[in-house]
Fold:
Amino acid sequence: MSDHRSDDRHQILDVLHRYTRGIDRLDEDLVRSCYHSDGVANHGLYEGSVDHLVDSAFTRQRADVQVATHTIHQTLVEFEGEAAVAETYATAVERRWPEDAGTFDTMVGLRYVDRFERRDGTWLIARRTVVVDWTQVREVDEGPLAGAQFVRGRRDSQDLVYQELVRLRSR
Structure:
C-alpha cells in the first residue's frame, strides 16, 4: 500500500470516528462535518439529506435516548480514483428509560456502507447506507455499579471530552 493511500485511509477513519462522537454527544455540527453538503444518508428510520438526518435523528435521540454508544470495529476501504467505498462494522447501544417500564438497552449490530469522495483534497461521506445485521433489546440492571461515583457521559457539550478539548486549546 502506498503512503498516499495510507493517508487517505487515515482521513476516512477520522471521519468515521468523528461521526460516532457527534452522534453520541448530540453534536450536530460534528455529524454534518462528516458529509459533503450534498451527501445523502439512509439510516432506515431516516433517509435523505444530511440536514434531514440530523434534524430527524437528533429530535428522536433527544426525546428517547438517555445514553448512546456507537463503537466502530473493523473497516475495509477500497479506492477507485477520488472515490472509495468503506464498509465499517459497528455496534450501537442506546439506553432508554420508558415511563413506568424500567431501563432498556437496544443493541444493534450494523455496518456503515459509505461512498466517500475526495473533493478539494478532503475525504467526506457522499452516501451512507446503514445495514442492520442484528438487533436485541434487553432490560438493564446496573447492579452494584449503579450508585458508584463514576464520571458519567453526557449527551452535550458538557461531556468531559469537550471540557478537555477546551483546556487543550486554551494553552
About this structure: Residues 3-24 form the longest helix (22 residues). The helical segments are 3-24, 28-32, 50-64, 160-169. The two ends are 38 Å apart (CA to CA). The longest strand covers residues 122-139.
